[in-house]
Amino acid sequence: MKRTTFRLAVIQMLVKGGCPDENCKRAVEKIHEASKNGAHVALLPEAMNLGWTHPSAKKLAEPIPDGKTCRTLSALAQKHKIYICAGLIERTPEGIYNSAVLIDKKGAVILLHRKLNELEIAHDLYRLGDRLGVVDTPLGRFGLMICADAFPRYQVISRTLGLMGADVILSPCAWAVPSDHDNEKEPYGKLWLDNYQPVARDFKLYIAGASNVGLIEQGPWAGRKCIGCSLVIAPDGSVLAKGPYGENAETILYVDITPQPRPAQGDGWERYFRQIHQQNQKQ
Questions:
Q1: Could you tell me the end-to-end alpha-carbon distance of the chain, in angstroms, rounded to an integer?
Q2: Domain 6-282 belongs in CATH node 2.60.40.60
Q3: pLDDT per residue over 25-46, tens digit each?
């Protein structure tokens, strides 16, 4: 596949729980801005229509691709000729999922991911996904994960996407801290660096996580605040971009992405377990 440089816009936006129309309007404005600034791909946060674990999901979750929010994003992708990745709370006949979509420039949903590693406190609200997928586009091969999908043991989800040939992993996120968190004493983000950087290095791929901002008003984490700190990690493990910290820290990060030649199949896992073996020998 031909590899070409493209511009990724990581949209760190305010998400208000239970306010799908307001959230969608804000997303439309941000995507319009990103398109004007030359973005080819726009990445939005997790649960951007309703907010993560907001109880309104029981009544307001929408089907994909026929729900109002997904249809709005599809029309926007078609209008601006831009790929859009967004986290959406999805309703199916079986139940509700914490999902993510990748929409192409024609407005079609070309990849759907349902979160696999959902935190236990959300299990009574969301069903768990049961598969992973990647999709080829003229920009490269994309894989999707959502937030905590990044940190099961051995980074098994993101490494599997690497094994499936992903050039870029897009991850809608909702990174939250307690209301009294002091970012100067405890700078936020080490957990994500520890799980993004090794996978990016081992598989020579990009990982981008877009987190929202704003206060969590209802649900099991009521009182916490989402604080951004969105990340883009390069294939050598370096930090290409990091969003600002804060419950009001809306921004758009722009990063030029050039997919890299893929390592031989399985090399990313082999390097990882070789490192583990070497660490164990030193102990």
A1: 43
A2: no
A3: 999 999 999 999 999 999 999 9
